[in-house]
Amino acid sequence: MNALAEKIAQRIRLQGPITVAAFMADALGHPRHGYYMTADPLGRDGDFITAPEISQMFGELIGLWSAEVWRLLGEPTPFNLVELGPGRGTLMADALRAAKVLPGFDEAATVHLVETSPALRERQKTALPPRAVAWHDDLGDVPPGPMILIANEFFDALPIHQFERTADGWRERLIAFADARFVLAPSPHPSPTEVLIPEALRAMAPVGSVAEVSPACASIMRTIAERIEQDGGAALLIDYGHAEHRTGATLQAVRHHARHDFLTDPGTADLTAHVDFATLAAAASPHTAVYGPVTQGSFFRTLGIELRARQLLGRATEAQRGTIETAMRRLIDPAEMGTLFKVLAVCDRGLAEPPGFEPAASKG
């Protein structure tokens, strides 16, 4: 076993089985051995590739979206341009470059990156010079003021609790340590966290169903919405998941671009779960207007990704043309990222409808 596995096993020996959420929190964020603390996980030599690394078009269109939202907000100066979990800084670099088409945006924006990984902070510093950037461990450290916030593939990595419906009711799945390995074991007693299972699922799901809930997702979403309600602004959230509450175990581990047993060698693989966008919308709606979720394919088509691709193709070499066409297909095709990935916007109630969303999508 690796060092982190030893620490988690010792914790279980002393305290008993732990929740899936606690296991995830250590596997991803342990200060010394957590997955995001020790290395850059992105790219072909890492474990996964995110949309900003697939094509510059992704970040460019988010930059144009941000510029238009800033205009709709009345062009506040200064304002906080915030990204949660900014990866290598590629998205923010592409967004800032594209947003310069709107005079004043670049000068008004103060860039704040919420990032806990030392390795990724170093990559972000390389991607974004010579611009002044502030780094934070937590959104609460970002100073007050109007805010445009971007979160791409951030919520999927937040800890979840898993529950299974048994003949005796819902029981939380815990992680025990037996025979020198981690194993899933249902709790013999009800858990207080069970109340977070959406009522429709709790009442209707058959025996054997699995439900996943993330108090961390709801809490961070509520914090974002409260900040927007207080200071004005908007947030754009892009992630993979489902628009409505669903049952099913979606927690997975990825290592070297392949599936990996999430209970084996914690800290060496990425752990993610599908995002419940209905929960995010419910957390935000008491404080803000909510738009979506819409599919990523629909959102980027509405923003003009096909036109941008044609512009790039017009000055591309033959080899580059194939790369551009493949990248656009990966981003918007239903068989690729176009349908599984969703986009949600939460905005100041006084803000006009943001680009990329149908009027009927507004809630709250």
Quaternary structure classification: single chain
The CATH architecture of one domain can be given as 3-Layer(aba) Sandwich
Largest sheet, in brief, is: 9 strands, mixed
**Count of separate DSSP helical elements:** 14
CATH class of one domain: Alpha Beta
User: Radius of gyration over alpha carbons?
Assistant: 21 Å
Low-confidence stretches: 360-364
**Helix/strand/pairing category:** alpha/beta
- The average pLDDT score comes to 94
CATH topology of one domain: Rossmann fold
Number of strand segments: 17
* Share of residues in strands: 15-25%
N-C termini distance:
49 Å
Give the fraction of residues assigned to helices.
Answer: 25-40%
> Per the principal axes of the C-alpha atoms, what is the gross shape?
globular
Keywords:
alpha/beta; 37% helix; nine-stranded mixed sheet; disordered C terminus; 17 strands
Could you walk me through the main structural features you see in this protein, from its secondary elements to its overall organization?
The chain has 14 helices and 17 strands. With 364 residues, it is an alpha/beta fold. It has a domain at 49-158 and 214-261 and 270-363: Rossmann fold. The strands form 3 sheets. Strands 2, 3, 4, 5, 10, 14, 15, 16 and 17 form a 9-stranded mixed beta sheet that branches. Strands 1, 6, 7, 8 and 9 form a 5-stranded antiparallel beta sheet that branches. It is globular and about 60 Å long. The N and C termini lie far apart (49 Å). Mean pLDDT is 94; it is low at 360-364.
